[in-house]
């Protein structure tokens, strides 16, 4: 027999499906902006999606509508979900200018007596105890409702506008949620039979105490920043060193070079060349014998410097990596030797080979680049156009960054290929096909997810930055249709801005991830909140690429 929770989830799914509320598309008609849509907000400890209902209007921080999150006790939430699925509910929301997010309270958050929240609640998300609460907590911080209403069962309708600090509502009011700010939250005891719309009416009449350092105000400040302002703030914390030749630090430095393209600051190139000098003069080894794909990709910095400097040593460093694609007799290998069967290798190997071909005019490197790409596509490209991460996982999981890497890698590769290059058409087709598959899975928040086609997995920062950068580059270079792809960037950019603090702290960066054996293993990868070299580098690339596209008149995101 089904457990009570799973039966409830099945009931909700049937209700929503029958009423057409399972869509994740970006509808623009007026009614659809109020109609609640089934939106998973996380993965429960039993691996089931944490289902909720959310009005698309809820995602717009600038909307004059009142944005209310209702976290209802399970004994009440099933009835609320059923009411929200009726035809007249969206009209009632529109009449009240109210957008709703409806959640069945997890982990006993709406019980009469609740245990104290851990502090911090999201120190290592999303794992351990109270995993559903961790998902909800971060989601609340990032969506910043105008008010959260925690609904408990009771004998009469009674409001508590100053809930205890140890409760979920009190914690939202008194702490910095997801490191962003506080959220107004109240509690309500509700007897059976009170309709959801009547509960909303009663909530709208309450004089809800304001909070200090509001999450919503902080998010609005973040979203007002220009791409250059975001890049400036990131550059105070990322792109400051090249301790070894690794892609994380190298890409941050490339981001700094792109920032210099925006500002015209010649000092940036000189500063970055000083960091590269030990590798150029041999003081530090750039390419050890056992170099990983991350080291190979780190040499993209030298390829970029070679186009901005007349020092031939940069080309020698790039060629040294590209030569790893050939055996002792000069014959091409099947693929770059560090591919490890992972989709990451589309980025780790392809762009550096193309760059070597461009810098040396040696077509062998171009041929090795397309050979490597074909090998990786045969290995991991799924029928739906997404990349599985590796063959190790029998479920062929489309890991988020495992798709961000191909998107970024092909964008960088195409940037180095001549317009009439013999491998360009094939590479361009692969790039377009992958991005066409990716945009189908952009979430309502503008983000892509830790597992691309599983919206219950957390919205992941790096895949969003990498995919957005790849699309923005395509819009700049004329590779992509603006009518189709410019709106994708416009949706993604506010979500990226929201997850970047002025102090360089980021939200929901998947930790370093090798080959995993199952979908659940990808679910369980830690989502970092704080400074992170990988996330900072990808954010620098996205911000500067969008800024350059705006400067060239190819895109407008504000």
Low-confidence residue ranges: 1-11, 13-24
Sheet with the most strands: spatial strand order: 1-4-6-5-7-9-8
Beta-strand portion reads 5-15%
Number of strands: 11
Termini gap:
52 Å
Average predicted confidence as pLDDT: 93
Give Rg in angstroms.
25 Å
Assign a percent range to the helix content: 40-55%
By secondary-structure content and strand pairing, the structural class works out as alpha/beta
The general outline is: elongated
Number of helices: 21
Question: What's the quick description here?
Answer:
The protein is 47% helix and 9% strand. The protein has 558 residues and is of the alpha/beta class. The strands form three sheets. The chain has a seven-stranded mixed sheet, sandwiched between helices. Strands 2-3 form a two-stranded antiparallel sheet. It has a two-stranded antiparallel sheet with strand order 10-11.
């Amino acid at each position: 027999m089904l457990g009570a929770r799973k039966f409830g989830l099945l009931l909700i799914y049937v209700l929503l499906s029958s009423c057409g509320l399972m869509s994740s598309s970006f509808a623009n008609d007026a009614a659809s902006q109020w109609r609640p849509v089934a939106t998973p907000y996380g993965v429960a400890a039993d691996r089931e999606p944490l289902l909720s209902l959310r009005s698309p209007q809820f995602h717009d921080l600038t909307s004059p509508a009142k944005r209310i999150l209702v976290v209802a006790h399970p004994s009440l939430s099933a009835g609320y979900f059923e009411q929200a699925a009726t035809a007249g509910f969206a009209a009632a929301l529109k009449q009240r200018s109210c957008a709703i997010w409806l959640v069945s309270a997890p982990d006993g958050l709406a019980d009469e007596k609740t245990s104290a929240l851990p502090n911090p609640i999201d120190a290592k998300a999303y794992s351990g105890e109270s995993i559903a609460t961790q998902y909800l907590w971060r989601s609340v911080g990032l969506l910043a409702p105008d008010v959260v209403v925690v609904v408990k069962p009771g004998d009469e309708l009674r409001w508590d506008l100053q809930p205890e600090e140890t409760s979920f509502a009190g914690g939202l009011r008194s702490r910095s949620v997801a490191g962003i700010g506080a959220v107004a939250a109240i509690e309500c005891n509700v007897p059976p039979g009170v309709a959801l719309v009547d509960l909303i009416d009663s909530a709208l009449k309450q004089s809800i105490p304001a909070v200090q350092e509001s999450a919503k105000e902080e998010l609005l400040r973040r979203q007002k920043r220009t791409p250059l302002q975001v890049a400036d703030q990131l550059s105070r914390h990322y792109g400051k060193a090249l301790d070894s030749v690794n892609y994380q630090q190298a890409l941050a430095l490339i981001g700094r070079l792109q920032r210099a393209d925006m500002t015209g600051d010649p000092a940036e190139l000189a500063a970055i060349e000083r960091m590269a000098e030990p590798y150029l003069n041999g003081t530090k080894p750039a390419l050890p014998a056992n170099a990983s794909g991350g080291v190979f990709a780190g040499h993209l910095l030298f390829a970029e410097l070679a186009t901005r400097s007349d020092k031939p040593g940069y080309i020698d460093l790039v060629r040294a990596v590209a030569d790893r694609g050939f055996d002792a007799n000069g014959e091409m290998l099947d693929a770059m030797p560090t591919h490890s069967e992972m989709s990451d290798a589309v980025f780790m190997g392809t762009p550096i080979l193309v760059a070597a071909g461009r810098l040396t005019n040696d077509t062998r490197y171009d041929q090795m680049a397309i050979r490597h790409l074909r090998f990786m596509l045969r290995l991991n490209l799924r029928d739906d156009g997404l990349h599985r991460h590796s063959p190790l996982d029998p479920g062929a999981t489309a890991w988020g960054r495992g798709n961000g890497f191909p998107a970024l890698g092909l964008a960088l590769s195409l940037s180095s290929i001549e317009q009439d290059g013999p491998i360009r058409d094939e590479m361009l087709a692969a790039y377009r096909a992958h991005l066409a598959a990716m945009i189908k899975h952009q979430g309502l928040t503008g983000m892509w997810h830790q597992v691309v086609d599983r919206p219950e997995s957390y919205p992941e920062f790096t895949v969003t930055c990498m995919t957005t950068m790849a699309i923005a580059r395509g819009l700049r270079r004329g590779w992509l249709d603006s009518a189709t792809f410019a709106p994708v960037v416009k949706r993604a950019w506010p979500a990226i801005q929201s997850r970047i603090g002025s102090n360089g702290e980021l939200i929901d960066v998947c930790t370093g991830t090798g080959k995993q054996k199952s979908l659940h293993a990808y679910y369980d990868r830690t989502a970092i909140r704080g400074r992170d070299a990988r996330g900072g580098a990808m954010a620098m690339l996205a911000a500067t690429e969008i800024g350059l596209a705006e400067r060239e008149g190819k895109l407008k995101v504000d």
